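User: I've been trying to design a sequence by hand for this structure and keep getting stuck. Would you show me what you'd pick, starting by listing the structure so we're on the same page?

Assistant: Good idea, let's start from the same input. This is the structure you sent:
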């Protein structure tokens, strides 16, 4: 299977404006990195290095410290806990990063919440350089300690990265698929050699997730893993380099964390981060309970609330929201290319596209956080996003005419596989009602998530509806749009699409790459084998006393959070 390595070479600027109530948080300024970030000569590694000729992007100068208050316990909530604290086995994907336990070599940070700008920055690597299209070298930060007291260095970085690819059940293998070798150049320099040229190498050294589990290449302590064993490590005896370290995992209620006094980074006040004394990461499955506690002040932050909660949130002066438009979740339907009647009948597929009222679906299911999804995958944050390709407006009359042209003058009957969860059932019922007016009768086939996924993998369906987690770059969807893709659940196969997707992810010039992805997008759109329904933004809700909040793609970063209370 062809690799799908990814990263980004430029700031991603959203067309859609992120909605905040009130304004998005102001991050507490940090001291500049110890060394400048190095960018490749062919294409900028960091998002700020816009000119290809530039080889360094200096860190921003520090700004005067505001009246930062130290101390306090941040209380964060989630609706589910990861099964393991070992990042390569964390099926939920983001939780471990949100707890401040782990760091990666690089960051992919949201630098403008309103505009949705993101930028590659140093983290455990203080600089990086694209030596040639198949080689990156990274200068690692000196003086970094793990929570267990052991040193971070090149040997540990190499071991941690290689471990992602050599564990049989690792969810992070994809990050190593394009790597041929990792070399220790000196105690604080590593060189990564790749099989193929790719513009997406640096992002895979961040914890920017791709919706497939694990938090990516978080760097772990080899000394701790050797001392306690892999199983005990994953069940709570963890050791990372983050600003907070684990105290206790109460499996049915919360993670308890405390500040790591030997954390490497200074705050804006000149003292060691974090500002917090600790954090409680609580398990609260009921959204209503979370909202009640947020209003009461016993909870500071959550991303688990639904769009339906927005009116109540926005009416409370103690609460703030960030609409994460740069990382929306997507709901779509897919046709099985190997099954009739959709598989070889493009007019019938197009009829279904015109029969779909995406505007209404976005309002009903997404409410204030919903956006119609006309482009079958591409979002405004992606390279090559082209809103001019909005091809399938809601047009019931045209849909009905196309059904007849497709060879079904009396209509056609189709089986629609869907999950039994309430929202998926309601989506299926809404599609059923809309398409019936065009002469497409849908018989609904409900199944639990595991059974539905198995049927899809085996190809035992005519069409299905599903959802996809956020992704920071279109190259991640090679998994979905290419013939041998690991998430190609529609049996979609077009060699022209394969060629386009693989060539685009290998292109180093950001302008050329965007043009290539516009071509890929157009091919997929015209094929109409997959149809978008709507996008929904995650709703990050937090109290007004929370300051200094940062984000890496769609994950909260508590590194510089402080409480004004």
């Amino acid at each position: 299977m062809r690799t799908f390595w990814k990263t980004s070479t430029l700031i991603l600027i959203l067309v859609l404006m992120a909605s905040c109530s009130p304004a998005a948080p102001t991050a507490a300024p940090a001291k500049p990195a110890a060394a400048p970030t190095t960018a490749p000569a062919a294409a900028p590694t960091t998002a700020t290095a816009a000119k290809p000729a530039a080889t360094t992007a200096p860190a921003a100068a520090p700004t005067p410290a505001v009246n930062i208050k130290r101390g306090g316990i941040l209380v964060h909530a989630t609706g589910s806990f990861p099964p393991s604290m070992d990042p390569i086995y964390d099926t939920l994907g983001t939780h471990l990063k949100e707890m401040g336990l782990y760091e990666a070599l690089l960051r992919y940070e949201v630098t403008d919440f309103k505009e949705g700008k993101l930028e590659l920055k140093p983290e455990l690597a203080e600089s990086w350089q694209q030596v040639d299209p198949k080689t990156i070298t990274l200068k690692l930060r000196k003086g970094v300690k793990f929570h267990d007291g052991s040193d971070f260095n090149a040997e540990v970085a190499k071991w941690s990265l290689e471990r992602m690819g050599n564990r049989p059940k690792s969810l992070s293998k994809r990050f190593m698929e394009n790597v041929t070798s990792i070399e220790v150049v000196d105690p604080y320099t590593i060189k990564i050699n790749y099989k193929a040229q790719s513009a997406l190498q640096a992002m895979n050294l961040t914890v920017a997730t791709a919706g497939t589990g694990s938090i990516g290449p978080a760097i772990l302590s080899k000394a701790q893993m050797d001392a306690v064993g892999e199983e005990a490590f994953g069940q709570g005896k963890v050791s990372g380099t983050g600003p907070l370290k684990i105290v206790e995992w109460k499996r049915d209620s919360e993670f308890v964390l405390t500040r790591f006094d030997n954390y490497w980074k200074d705050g804006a006040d000149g003292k060691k981060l974090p500002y917090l004394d600790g954090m409680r990461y609580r398990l609260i499955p009921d959204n209503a309970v979370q909202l009640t506690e947020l209003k009461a002040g016993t909870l500071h932050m959550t991303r688990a609330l639904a769009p339906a909660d927005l009116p109540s949130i926005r009416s409370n002066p103690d609460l703030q929201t960030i609409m994460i438009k740069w990382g929306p979740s997507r709901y779509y339907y897919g046709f099985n290319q190997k099954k009739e009647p959709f598989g070889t009948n493009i007019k019938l597929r197009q009829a279904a596209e015109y029969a779909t009222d995406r505007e209404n679906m976005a309002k009903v299911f997404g409410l204030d956080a919903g956006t119609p999804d006309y482009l079958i995958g591409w979002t405004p944050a992606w390279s090559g996003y082209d809103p001019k390709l909005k091809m399938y407006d809601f047009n019931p009359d045209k849909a009905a005419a196309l059904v007849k042209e497709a060879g079904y003058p009396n209509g056609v009957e189709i089986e629609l596989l869907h999950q039994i969860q309430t929202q998926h059932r309601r989506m299926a019922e809404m599609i059923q009602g809309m398409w019936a007016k065009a002469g497409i009768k849908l018989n609904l086939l409900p199944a639990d998530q595991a059974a539905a996924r198995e049927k899809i993998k085996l190809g035992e369906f005519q069409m299905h509806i599903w959802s996809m987690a956020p992704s920071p770059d279109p190259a991640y969807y090679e998994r979905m749009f290419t013939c041998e893709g690991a998430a190609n659940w529609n049996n979609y196969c077009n060699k022209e699409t394969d060629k386009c997707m693989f060539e685009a992810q290998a292109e180093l010039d950001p302008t050329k790459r965007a043009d290539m992805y516009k071509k890929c997008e157009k091919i997929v759109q015209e094929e109409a084998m997959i149809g978008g329904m709507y996008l929904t933004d995650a709703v990050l809700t937090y109290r007004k006393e929370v300051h200094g909040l940062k984000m890496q793609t769609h994950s909260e970063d508590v590194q510089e959070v402080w409480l004004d209370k």
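That's my pick for every position. To get oriented when you compare it with your attempt: The domain at 20-318+544-563 is CATH 3.40.190.10 (D-Maltodextrin-Binding Protein; domain 2). Confidence is low (pLDDT under 50) at residues 1-64.
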